[in-house]
User: Which sequence fits this backbone?
């Protein structure tokens, strides 16, 4: 956000230009700044690469990820670049198809968390009063379940499956967005342009949509980028302990879980799925760090 | 001071009540009939009726909750459906192994994370800083279940330096490193940025101007002021590591709460699951309370707010 514009004019930055023009201008500016950060740029390239791999999986995978060949636990070779697993399935094909699963889990779960969390946070911050208290107390209780425990508890309720993992990881991540959205809303709602909009007779829904949301979105986007990385890790972890993707789904965490039983004679089964998870998560973190430095330097840890 | 401590201690109560409601509600939130889910497909109508009666599911919900809480306060978390044993006994048998791993990992993470963070901050913007930060980024991006497997491959199987399973102190080394690495990475980043923030303050310039040696400035003036946010993170990390030990225990086939949790979920044994959730969350709440009380020792300003 361009600093100081609202304090100079008393108007939201996006109201100075047309909303669309401002948004495009800001996006272009973010793009230019990202290009000057090699880490963030590398992260973006790797993310795009994995998105392409996920979308084009059927075209680029050398074979069917579930096809069983007689060649069990074969070392990497020209036929199977990443080797084969305990059932003779091609590890490269499974890693490629695994990108679909992990990216979908990351996007869906953070989509849930971002939507529900920001909605709750904005409502809590904007309305205040008892609704604020109730939302924040529930948030406190959710935060009392440390780390992966809340996701584990939700999977325990819903039953182990990949779909339920998406929901569980999504719900687990809600409090972070609630708190951030609430804190920003508390600041923004005192700004003169919000008071002005209210004085002009804007209804609350319109004030929230047109004046609050556009001005609190930056830190939420930064959190969501890094959040996708975290949710991919959590979901793969849940699949590793058998609570997520069920066989024969080609999922990186579940592949590692099987590989654990064959470490002595099939290192490739454990190496490549793990490398894939690390690369995606590293790329998202790099990109998220860069985005944070540009959009919201105060969030720096 | 006394009022601050009292207020902080009292704040725990509503959170604990919330946690107890949440863990109580777990079995009620199961889609479908929880009793049928717990008993599996082969249950007869008689079994279902009996278990429903045993669990007191026919009473009004507030009566059920009150019974749950008053039993829990007296140390009765119900009996496991699978084994028939009291859940609390089962948990306390497994807790020491998990807590040992968690505490070792927290200490290792604090030692390495803070050292690396301080080193990165005082080294200035050079290759030392860049190297440590790259290492930290790698640390938060490596899934524990993968780094654990890599450590087993290298130190357990290739080099044969440490046992890859078992319960002795040597068998604790690799799990501790695995569990501690991401936390150490987070702490290193955190310590570095708070150190840099404090290094820019006026009193640091004054301390240097009056001729104090650099290590005195760094340790007494900077580190002491940077500690408060860092210790908060250590407290938060403790909970994360306690829960994360589920995965690490699974990687290293360690007996503990982790494997217990996984089998409890797979067999949908709700008394067990609820017990684990309640005990773990309660430990976490009390650790955070201890951390908050510790601040007031480190930073006198907090007492008077």
Assistant:
């Amino acid at each position: 956000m361009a600093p100081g514009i609202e304090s100079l004019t008393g108007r939201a930055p996006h109201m100075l230009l047309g909303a669309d023009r401002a948004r495009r201008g800001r996006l272009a500016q973010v793009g230019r700044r990202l290009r000057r950060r090699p880490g963030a740029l590398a992260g973006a390239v790797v993310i795009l690469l994995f998105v392409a791999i996920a979308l084009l999986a059927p075209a680029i995978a050398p074979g069917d990820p579930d096809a069983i060949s007689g060649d069990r636990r074969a070392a990497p070779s020209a036929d199977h670049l990443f080797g084969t697993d305990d059932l003779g399935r091609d590890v490269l094909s499974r890693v490629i198809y695994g990108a679909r699963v992990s990216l979908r889990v990351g996007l869906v779960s953070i989509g849930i968390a971002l939507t529900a969390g920001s909605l709750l946070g904005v409502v809590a911050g904007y309305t205040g009063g008892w609704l604020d208290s109730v939302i924040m107390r529930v948030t406190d209780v959710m935060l009392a379940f440390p780390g992966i425990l809340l996701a584990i508890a939700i999977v325990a309720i819903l039953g182990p499956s990949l779909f339920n993992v998406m929901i569980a990881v999504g719900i687990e991540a809600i409090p972070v967005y609630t708190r951030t959205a609430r804190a920003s809303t508390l600041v923004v709602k005192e700004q003169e342009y919000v008071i002005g909009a209210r004085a002009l007779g804007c209804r609350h829904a319109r004030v929230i949509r047109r004046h609050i949301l556009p001005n609190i979105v930056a830190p939420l986007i930064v959190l969501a980028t890094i959040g996708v990385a975290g949710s991919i890790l959590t979901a793969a972890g849940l699949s590793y302990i058998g609570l997520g993707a069920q066989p024969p789904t080609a999922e990186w965490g579940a592949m590692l879980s099987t590989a654990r039983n064959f470490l002595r004679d099939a290192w490739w089964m454990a190496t490549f799925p793990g490398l894939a998870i690390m690369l995606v998560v590293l790329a998202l973190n790099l990109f998220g760090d860069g985005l944070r430095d540009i959009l919201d330097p105060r969030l720096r840890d | 001071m006394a009022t601050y401590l009292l207020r902080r201690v009292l704040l725990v109560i509503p959170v604990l009540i919330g946690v107890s409601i949440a863990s109580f509600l777990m079995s009620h939130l199961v889609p479908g009939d929880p009793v049928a889910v717990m008993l599996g497909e082969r249950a007869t109508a008689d079994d279902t009726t009996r278990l429903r009666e045993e669990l007191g599911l026919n009473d009004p919900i507030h009566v059920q909750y009150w019974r749950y809480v008053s039993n829990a306060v007296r140390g009765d978390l119900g009996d496991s459906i699978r084994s028939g044993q009291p859940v609390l006994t089962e948990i306390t048998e497994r807790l020491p192994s998990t807590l040992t791993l968690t505490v070792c990992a927290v200490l290792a993470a604090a030692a390495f994370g803070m050292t690396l963070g301080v080193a990165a901050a005082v080294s200035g913007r050079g290759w030392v800083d860049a190297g440590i930060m790259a290492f930290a980024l790698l640390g938060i991006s490596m899934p524990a279940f993968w780094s654990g497997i890599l450590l087993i491959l290298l130190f357990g199987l290739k080099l044969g330096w440490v046992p890859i399973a078992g319960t002795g102190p040597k068998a604790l080394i690799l799990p501790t490193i695995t569990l501690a690495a991401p936390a150490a990475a987070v702490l290193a980043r955190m310590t570095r940025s708070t150190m840099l923030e404090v290094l820019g303050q006026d009193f640091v310039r004054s301390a240097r101007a009056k001729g104090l040696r650099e290590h005195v400035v760094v340790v007494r003036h900077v580190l002491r002021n940077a500690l408060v946010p860092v210790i908060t993170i250590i407290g938060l990390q403790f909970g994360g590591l306690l829960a994360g030990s589920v995965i690490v225990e699974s990687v290293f086939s360690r007996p503990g709460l982790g494997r217990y949790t996984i089998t409890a979920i797979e067999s949908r044994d709700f008394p067990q699951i609820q017990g684990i959730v309640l005990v773990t969350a309660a430990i976490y709440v009390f650790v955070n309370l201890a951390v908050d009380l510790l601040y007031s020792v480190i930073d006198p300003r907090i007492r008077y707010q």
Notes: Residues 1-11 of chain A have pLDDT under 50 and may be disordered.
